[in-house]
Design goal:
The chain has 452 residues and is of the alpha+beta class. The chain contains 15 helices and 21 strands. Among the domains are: 191 residues, Rossmann fold (3-Layer(aba) Sandwich); 118 residues, Jelly Rolls (Sandwich). It is globular and about 80 Å long. The model has no long low-confidence stretch (mean pLDDT 95).
């Protein structure tokens, strides 16, 4: 039974054409370079910067068709993988899931000597120079600036398919560890760098589809962001299976049959979702985070912006256990703990709004009166070590859940939705700080124990 849910929301931005494919993009760049040369420039630099996770080889091969006198691949300006990992170690930790937020600058992680040499090489060149890759604008700001973008959901899919982290040889590693490195380090550096570039980019390129980029002129993107920040919009949702997932969304949202279930839908998470911008001849997908970075004040308003800065401090997602299992029993850190442990200024308060529920469905919420925390922790440790299963109802309140019930869940409250519920989760955070306490003794879809 398919409903009226729109899986492919777009934001209409008329009056602009999209460059489809590398041939069109390279042709537009050649014309721009030619005009600059005709104006008397004896050197023209095309800086093609990118987000880590973009297919660099593909982009570099395309730009080589411009036949530049000098071609700089920025991957050569970073340390060897072992040294780069050493520099990131303070933010990575030994934990499988959690690191520490990196507040550094991209240049801190590049090789200083190589970067200086590249700048000198470009500065002394004549003719056409192309600098391509993550950090290209640190070599030269570009007489023509191109930015190749990609959504974080697409990056996560590439991690699962075997893509390594940037300038790393960990392609076969645990995807959760790759995600951790991206989330806590690479994406923080990249967002800080990108925020300084997008506003002056001549072209912005959607690189989601292999071999088929979609590029728009910088002014077209600027207009699209103005439109998005001044009216209601939706981000493009994505859906993911999970060990506890259900069937409610599949039946009502007309989702593909390939997955065993659908546990999550992330429908309003600018950190990860895309904006689909419908220009005259094609749709271009850009990270919704671009809107947050470039239009924070009109998007958020003065009060929210003053409190949180250029972050979208709320997320919307759907949790489907209809015909599935309990979520992991979990807790989100208090404000004091998240500040001390992760350098974050605020934490995850949230709520569950029950859209639908089976007979007898429940939500686990808060510790029962008189529970001894030490006794509970000992029971959790024994259960997670393979001993007697954790008796959740002995320690945690089990509350009946019916359609349209609304449960408030302050940070520090043990909770989870039970089997047979369809929940709209609204959380006061864009981030991922969920501590799983007990996963009911099961493994993940990959057959591995889920991290607790």
């Amino acid at each position: 039974m398919a409903g009226r849910y729109d899986r492919f929301p777009t934001l209409r931005v008329p009056g602009h054409e999209v460059l489809l494919g590398y041939e069109a993009l390279v042709g537009a760049l050649a014309r721009r370079v030619g005009a600059l040369r005709l104006s008397g420039a004896d050197r023209v630099v095309v800086a093609c910067d990118s987000y880590p996770g973009v297919r660099d080889d593909e982009v570099l091969e395309a730009l080589a068709r411009l036949r530049p006198e000098v071609l700089v691949d920025t991957r050569e300006l970073f340390p060897e993988p072992d040294e780069l990992t050493r520099r990131m170690e303070p933010f990575l930790t030994d934990d499988r899931v959690f690191g520490r937020m990196c507040f550094g600058e991209l240049e801190d992680f590049m090789d200083a000597g190589s970067l200086t040499s590249a700048r000198e090489r470009v500065g002394g060149a004549r003719g056409l120079v192309v600098v391509c890759g993550f950090g290209a604008a640190l070599v030269h700001p570009g007489d023509v600036l191109v930015y190749c973008d990609v959504t974080r959901w697409e990056i996560q899919l590439r991690y699962r398919a075997g893509m390594p982290n940037y300038r790393c040889d960990n392609g076969g590693d645990d995807p959760l560890r790759k995600f951790k490195r991206g989330y806590f380090v690479e994406w923080r550096l990249a967002d800080r760098h990108k925020a300084r570039l997008l506003g002056r980019a001549d072209f912005v390129v959607d690189t989601v589809d292999a071999g088929s980029p979609r590029a728009v002129a910088g002014p077209a993107l600027a207009e699209a962001l103005d439109v998005a920040s001044s009216r209601p919009f939706r981000t493009v949702p994505y859906f993911d299976p999970g060990v506890w997932g259900g069937q409610w969304m599949r039946e009502r949202f007309d989702l593909p049959d390939g997955a065993p279930n659908y546990a999550w839908s992330f429908d309003g998470v600018p950190e990860e979702n895309a904006l689909a911008l419908a220009f005259d001849n094609a749709v271009v997908r850009v990270p919704a985070m671009d809107l947050t970075l470039l239009r924070p004040l009109p998007l958020l308003g003065e009060g929210v912006y003053a409190r949180y800065g250029a972050e979208f401090p709320i997320r919307f997602d759907l949790l489907d256990t209809m015909g599935g299992q309990n979520l992991s029993l979990q807790v989100h850190p208090t404000t004091d703990y998240i500040r001390r442990a992760f350098g974050m200024a605020y934490t995850q308060d949230e709520s569950y709004y029950v859209l639908d529920a089976e007979q007898g469905a429940c939500v686990y919420l808060g510790l029962r009166e008189g529970v001894d925390p030490g006794e509970m922790m000992a029971a959790l440790e024994r259960a997670n070590a393979g001993g007697e299963p954790f008796d959740a109802e002995r320690y945690v309140n089990r509350l009946p859940a019916r359609p349209h019930d609304h449960f408030l869940i302050p940070a520090g409250t043990v909770h989870c939705s039970g089997a047979g519920t369809m929940v709209l989760e609204v959380s006061a955070t864009p981030y991922i700080f969920t501590f799983k306490l007990w996963d009911w003794g099961r493994t993940g879809l990959d057959g591995r124990p889920r991290p607790v």
